[in-house]
Amino acid sequence: MELNSYSGLPNERVKAANGIDYAYRDTGPTDVGAGVPLVLLQHFRGNLDNWDPALIDALAPARRVIAFDNAGVGGSTGTTPTTVDRMAHDAIAFIEAIGASGALGLGQGPVDVLGFSLGSFVAQQIALTRPALVRRLVLASSAPQGADGMHGWAPEVIDAVGNPETSPEEYLSVFFTGSPASAQAGRQTLQRIYGARSEDRDTATDWATREAQYDAVCTWGIPDHAKLQRLGCLRMPVFVANGDSDPMILPRYSHLLAGLIPQARVKIYPDSAHGFLFQHHAEFAADVDAFLDGPR
Q1: Measured between alpha carbons, how far is 21 from 165 in angstroms, rounded to an integer?
Q2: Is 104:128 a contact under the CB 8 Å cutoff?
Q3: How many distinct structural domains can be found in the chain?
Q4: Structural contact between residues 65 and 98, judged by C-beta atoms closer than 8 angstroms
Q5: What confidence tens digit (pLDDT) does each residue in 77-103 have?
Q6: Residue 101 half-sphere exposure toward CB, CA atoms < 13 A
Q7: Domain span at 113
Q8: Per-residue pLDDT tens for 220-261?
Q9: In whole angstroms, what is the distance from residue 256 CA to residue 268 CA?
Q10: Is 266 among the domain residues?
């Protein structure tokens, strides 16, 4: 393990007011001048070990970065909810718990939030439910609630990532494109995710979490145009990003999101799929840094 890398961080725990013990890892500078911390929300079935260490290591020099397992996921206690709204309340409880602990120097001030895939649905709901808690919002591979075409994922996608046992080939087919460059980036990502850390790995997500999360995804995707109007409430700056060939959450939803949120900007990364932020980790981290440090 590289002790100064995400791959070498210890698994820590904090108890929240809702009774959940949350597993998390934190990295980056802790001094007062480091600015607003960045909290990460993970994808469908993902835990602490499913973040690409290269991405977090690229984000961490400029700010505190905190990844965690939401309730019932991985090493956190409790039961995984079946709705995005409940997941958002559980995530708020975690953010409040680490702020109240004082251990990370967060205090009770706002945080920046980066949500990926299902985590981006939760991030939207956090910002709507507790807007004062979120200074800036990053939505990676995202879609708004109620958008047409999001009521569950395409059969070839859920067959690849939703089975009890998934293979590296199935992961690559959804997270990366078939081009030589993207496929090579995918193999390198898998090596970093699974090869860099052999000890003290996070607890694997179980089938109950998979079922609950997919129920939440399908409920979020029930077509309802009235729900699209909710996003007009968001007043914080928002960065929306995706790969140009994402088969799981099509890039057109990124443009839809950006059109619905008053202070949103969008970027689509070339020759990449659901895992664009891992394939283009250096570029994406630089874009996130510039966005988080930019003018309001």
Answers
A1: 27
A2: no
A3: 1
A4: no
A5: 999 999 999 999 999 999 999 987 665
A6: 15
A7: 6-293
A8: 999 999 999 999 999 999 999 999 999 999 999 999 999 999
A9: 13
A10: yes
Is residue 74 domain-resident? yes
In a domain, 250, yes or no: yes
- Tokens 């807007």 found at: 131
Does residue 1 form part of some domain?
A: no
**Dihedral Cα 77, 83, 89, 92, nearest 10 deg:** 80
End-to-end CA distance of the chain: 38
Is 257 in contact with 264 (CB distance < 8 Å)?
yes
CATH number at residue 32: 3.40.50.1820
Residues 258, 265 contacting (CB under 8 angstroms):
yes
Give the whole-angstrom CA distance, residue 9 versus residue 122. 25
Residue 5 burial (C-beta neighbours within 10 Å; 0-12, 13-18, 19+): middle
Look-up: residue for tokens 């791959």? 7
Is the predicted pLDDT of residue 163 greater than 80, yes or no?
yes
pTM beyond 0.90: yes
Which two three-digit tokens encode residue 250? Answer: 């099509």
